[in-house]
Request: fold
Amino acid sequence: MKKFWGICLTALFIGSVLTGAVACGDDTMENAHKISATGNENICEHCGQALYEGEIEYTLSENGKYYIADIDSAKGDVIVPGYYKGIGDKDYLPVLEATANSRYSLGNVELSAVVEKIDIAHEHGNNCSQIFVPAENPYYKTIDGVLFNKDETKLVCYPAKKKATSYTVPDTVKVIGERAFSMCSHLEELILPQNGSLKEIQEWAFYACEIVSLVIPASVEKIGNDIFTNWGLGDFTPTVYIPFEKDQLPEGWEADWLNIICNIEFVYGYTGN
Reply:
């Protein structure tokens, strides 16, 4: 029996070596996904895994770190590497800024444990189905494919192509980020926290979305510009419930919707009845 298990373990070890099955993903350069401009630009130099189809452009910043402005040329599922070595670089450098933005439909987007800034404020939306961040990342976390900051007080991005038709924002959230629900094509029902936690909705938060109705809680102290822009352009009329009268909106609300023509029914003075 011992000989049998020894043979099995040996076979597994040899198989892992032959297939390049080396674990990747944490925040150390030795164990993170790495891409080199002098190699195959979509194959991880460490584990041999194809990280994406197509191309991603890496840009070297003034502080000697790489960032990714967009992934427009990538397709399908995308794994953004933690480190990149450009032509002329002596060693791999961390990719500290990344994005889930693309004008084309993506599948799942997996970001690295070393990324410090994730930008989704983009006119084309994020166009992905789910976003994942390793637990080792000190700045971000994902819950059911939705991106938050680490302490879950800011909802950074709801994937625009996520299949769910209903979503409830966790009660821990204080801020809905810029373009967080932009161009969500499947989401019809969005429930915001009514426990007093939500304080801010940033600009373009619901740009061109398909949400049928939305209740803005009275706890919101600040609303950015253009949160309802291009919402309700389809064959439906969304309803937005406002907890204040039209002439008594809080000072921090950039209520630019008062001065534009849009296909939204606003119900002012809503008390939940």
Q: What stands out?
A: The CA atoms of residues 246 and 268 lie 6 Å apart.
